[in-house]
């Protein structure tokens, strides 16, 4: 009896599997949905801004947007391997290299915010009000002396934020290799901004963070912004479609349309207002009207891409 | 295909040259898993013994629960321990979150059920005649228990080794409680997760090869203590 039951349930299971398989195929067949693969930095993803833009984009076109998030380094690496059609990142040095190496076709700035140094309310290293460079020097000096009280959590994942942190150490006149090997006051998380913030809060440590992710997570954290001033803290987000000349299979057309949405009136409005209804103030600043401030020249800033760009590049 | 082949060669080189980063992460993984296994064994073997040697109401149900917990998802243990150790949690004052000690706590909770269950199974595998003959030869209750535990030691050793294997290869607790901090809580599994997404495939493969090799050795040991080398 038992044996028969097993056989029956096995058959039911197989039948169920077959049904799912066929219905999935049917789904794909209807209208030939296109696919757009976006490889994004964690801040746009963790703040859920991208989800919102994706929904609008999917309503505009018959397209399925799939987003994977990682630090800028990871996001670019995926695109280099041809696993993405579009990257949304924030590290101008590596963006230029990505384009110069032929992987990206054009850079479009669409949003910006600032980096801040956040830490515990009681500020054990006493950095509040300092210049960024001085703050970094102070955190290191105090951390070496008293690693139980003063800690710094680094992204440690080659992200744009990690790259900026290295620049800050450099500006402070400190060799980065010296920082990573100095002591346990410096912890490399190797994770995205959200997890790194949680870790920083748990450890009562300091970290470098973008204002948008911090605002989105702030209510769950025992951290306050301590350093918010300084040109070196400006953080610009750019979109770069992956070149069909290097990876012929990429969906360059859809990537370009997505960039156009980002820089459109509607897209820029959304970016400028996003967060007002949930946390009471905007999370990002739109690039529109601020091109000089954020250092993006003419056609890099909030300009739709030329219509035949993908065809030209592929040829 | 090229990438896999080249990565494999580079990975072997990293291992043979005793790359400091590879060695450091491997040693840390082994130490943390060893600590978890030792503590878990100290908990699981006595509990397994107590359950086996006593008849009580709900015994069968207790064993069922333990067996269900064999496949306890590592992320649920991670979540539970995170809530306990987090600064706002009941044990927050100890500052154990994102430390190796926190990882040991998590892995211990993870592997106690499987080690307890397998201990019970090991003891059940010893025929009742052993107990009967021990008692008939004048053994007290406790002497009889020690006789049976002695007979079951191979199977119990296997239980401990399996627990070690699970602790070493899990990633949920290590990531959620350890936090993958370089030089502090970064272990084989979390390093593989990070380096793969970062694109350092060779390094990941080297760590992966080490992880599989250790699992193989553990398995061979399990078979060895059970007296069947190549079975």
From TrEMBL, chain A:
Cross-referenced SUPFAM superfamilies: Periplasmic binding protein-like II (SSF53850)
Protein name as annotated: Substrate-binding domain-containing protein
Domain spans labelled PBP: 32-266
PROSITE patterns listed in its UniProt record: ISPD (PS01295)
InterPro entries, per database record: ABC-Tungstate_binding, ISPD_synthase_CS, PBP_domain
Pfam families per UniProt: PBP_like_2 (PF12849)
Organism, scientific name: Candidatus Methanocrinis alkalitolerans
């Amino acid at each position: 009896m038992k044996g028969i039951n097993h056989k029956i349930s096995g058959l039911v299971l197989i039948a169920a599997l077959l049904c799912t398989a066929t219905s999935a195929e049917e789904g794909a067949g209807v209208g030939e949905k296109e696919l757009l693969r976006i490889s994004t930095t964690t801040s746009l993803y963790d703040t859920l801004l991208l989800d919102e833009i994706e929904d609008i984009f999917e309503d505009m076109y018959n397209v399925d947007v799939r987003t994977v998030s990682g630090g800028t380094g990871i996001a670019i690496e995926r695109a280099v391997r041809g696993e993405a059609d579009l990257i949304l990142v924030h590290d101008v040095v590596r963006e230029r290299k990505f384009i110069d190496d032929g992987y990206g076709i054009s850079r479009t700035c669409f949003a910006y915010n600032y980096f801040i140094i956040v830490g515990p309310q009681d500020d054990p290293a006493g950095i509040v009000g300092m210049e960024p460079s001085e703050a970094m020097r102070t955190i290191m000096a105090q951390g070496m002396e008293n690693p139980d009280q003063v800690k710094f959590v680094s992204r440690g994942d080659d992200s744009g934020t990690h790259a900026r942190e290295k620049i800050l150490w450099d500006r402070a006149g400190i060799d980065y290799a010296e920082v990573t090997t100095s002591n346990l006051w410096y912890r490399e998380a190797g994770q995205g901004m959200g997890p790194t913030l949680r870790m920083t809060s748990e450890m009562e440590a300091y970290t470098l963070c973008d204002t948008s992710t911090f605002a989105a997570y702030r209510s769950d954290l025992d951290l306050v912004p301590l350093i918010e001033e300084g040109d070196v803290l400006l953080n610009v987000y750019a979109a770069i479609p992956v070149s069909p000349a290097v990876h012929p299979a990429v969906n360059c057309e859809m990537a370009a349309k997505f960039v156009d949405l980002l820089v459109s009136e509607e897209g820029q409005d959304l970016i400028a207002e996003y967060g007002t209804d949930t946390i009471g103030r905007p999370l990002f600043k739109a690039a529109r009207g601020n091109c000089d401030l954020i250092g993006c020249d003419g056609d890099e800033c909030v300009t739709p891409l030329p219509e035949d760009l993908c065809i030209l590049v592929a040829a | 295909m090229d990438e896999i082949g080249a990565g494999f060669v580079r990975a072997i080189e990293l291992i043979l040259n005793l790359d400091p980063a590879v060695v450091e992460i491997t040693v840390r993984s082994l130490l943390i898993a060893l600590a978890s296994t030792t503590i878990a064994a100290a908990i699981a073997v006595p509990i397994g013994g107590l359950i086996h040697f006593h008849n009580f109401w709900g015994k069968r149900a207790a064993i069922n629960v333990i067996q269900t917990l064999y496949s306890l998802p590592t992320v649920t243990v991670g979540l539970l321990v995170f809530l306990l150790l987090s600064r706002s949690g009941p044990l927050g004052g100890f500052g154990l979150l994102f430390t190796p000690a926190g990882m040991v706590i998590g892995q211990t909770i993870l592997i106690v059920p499987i080690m307890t269950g397998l201990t019970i199974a090991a003891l059940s595998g010893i025929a009742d005649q052993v107990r009967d003959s021990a008692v008939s030869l004048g053994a007290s209750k406790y002497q009889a228990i020690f006789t049976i535990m002695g007979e079951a030691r191979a199977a119990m050793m296997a239980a401990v080794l399996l627990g070690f294997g699970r602790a070493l290869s899990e990633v949920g607790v290590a990531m959620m409680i350890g936090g993958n901090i370089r030089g502090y809580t970064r272990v084989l599994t979390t390093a593989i997760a990070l380096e793969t997404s970062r694109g350092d495939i060779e390094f990941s493969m080297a760590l992966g090869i080490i992880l599989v090799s250790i699992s193989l050795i553990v398995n061979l040991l399990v078979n060895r203590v059970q007296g069947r080398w190549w079975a």
